[in-house]
Amino acid sequence: MDDRQAVLAEKLENLLKEAAQVSVALDRADGTISGVPHYSVIEGRAHDLGRQFSRKIQERQLGEVAAEADATAKCPGCGTRCELTVEKRSLTSIDGPVGALEQEGYCPCCRRSFFPSA
Amino acid sequence: MGFDARLLTPLLIQKIVVSGAETRSFTRAVKVMDQVGGQGVSRNTMQRVVGDVGGELAVRRDANPKTAEALADCPEEPPELAVVECDGGRIRTRVPDQGPGVHLSGKGWSETKNACLIRATRQTFDEDPQPEPPACFCDPKHVAKLVESEALSVATPAGNGDDQGEVDEDEPQGPLGFDGDWRAKRLVRTVVSSMACSRQFGRQMAREAKRRHFSQAAARAFLGDGLGWNWSIWKEQFSEYIPILDFIHPLSYLHATAKAVYELDEDVWSQYLVWMRGCWQGEVDQILSELRLWQEKLGLPPADVADTDPRSVVAATITYLQNNRLRMKYPEYRRGGLPVTTAWMESLVKEMNYRVKGTEMFWNDPEGAEAILQVRAASLSDDDRLAKHLATRPGSPFVRRPKLPKSNVEKRKS
Predict the structure, then answer these.
(1) Domain ends where: B260, B292, B327?
(2) Contact in structure between B161 and B204 (CB atoms under 8 Å)
(3) B38 touches chain A (CB under 8 A)
(4) For residue range B27-59, what is the model confidence (pLDDT) as tens digits?
(5) What is the span of the domain harbouring residue B145?
(6) Beta bridge mates, A98
(7) What is the pLDDT of residues B361-381, one digit of tens each?
(8) Global pTM value
(9) By the 8 A CB rule, do B82 and B118 touch?
């Protein structure tokens, strides 16, 4: 692991700790968890946060892919080079809906949209 | 990135397909997805995704076995023993796109074809490692189950009572001259299943065998019961393999014949035991001679006589044994460490049926049926082919996935 990776890993660890602290404080503050709860409540809340975190990562990663891609792409149907625009699209992942930014092209020859990142 | 029709992520598709393949119905699979997988999907989505993936698996099943497109893994070494077994099954089918309710196709039942291709270990012997038949074949109750008839009122041999539970049909016994079990051990099983006609199904099996280097195996065996298409496939695609008739299959003929020629239960049972033992010891010609004597004594069956008439029963058994005698050299097979029953196949058929056959379980004919057979077969294969396919499945650049060619399923001819 190089220096940059080590710094990022440490930053992530600290942010996760902070996120856990905030989540616990929020659950106590809004009364979701009080006293000695059934452990399934704790587990369920923690898992919800994990899923939320997973969705954020997926959205971010897809955004990175869209940002790095070319501005034009060939239509997979006929090969015509088409301009791409970035659109928001809702995907369903194992952790719930993800609002992803994705490049979309429209081929005037095939008269249909296509998604180069597929 | 592997996006399916732009809406579902690849890991979600993996969960949907595995749930759809492993649970009893799509309705149960939806529940499992919601309660265990943590992500609710509709029944229609489940069905559509399983249909898509099943179609893709069918295309890869039919791909050139020399290319990476083929489903099976190429082993580094050819198997020591390659065993191919096949058998038919039945599922209920309906005509699709006919509105609400079930619109049966034909009589509602369609034949499926299943095969297992097994890489196995084996040991060879100078002498027959099990010259005496296993105890289960001498147990009237167990035999009654095997031949699907009522048990005879004869004494049950000691140690084979009702409390015995599952009986191991190949259990080795007696002074064998070696330690342990002579039977081949299953290492890797892969499964082929389809609604296709026997000729096309034979080609599917041959492609799978080729991909797995079965032709280079030190020993090869092909097992089936008396179904005609089993042996057509053997003749067309696996003629280099040693053909073996499932030992259990002739037992029903011999048992029925013993019942046809004797009246008293004791006589029926002792005659069955003699013939069964002879069959186990490869004395088919001797049994045939005895049956011909019985035929002479009873006379030939007239053209319009019932199938249950003793003359017809004896004639049917003679024909059956004559047709199969070259596939009944059981002592030779045991010396060569080859299996003598289709137990592996029977076990597979039960596993397939769990998902595809049941009350109120109807499949669109043929695409829906073919798709679930592909997904279930891949799921039951030991080489992890379903997970590997899903992990490398290409995405679709369009919102709607292109329809797969329909040529994968030729309408059934046999």
Answers:
(1) B327
(2) no
(3) yes
(4) 999 999 999 988 889 999 999 999 999 999 999
(5) 135-157+248-327
(6) A91
(7) 888 888 899 999 999 999 999
(8) 0.85
(9) yes
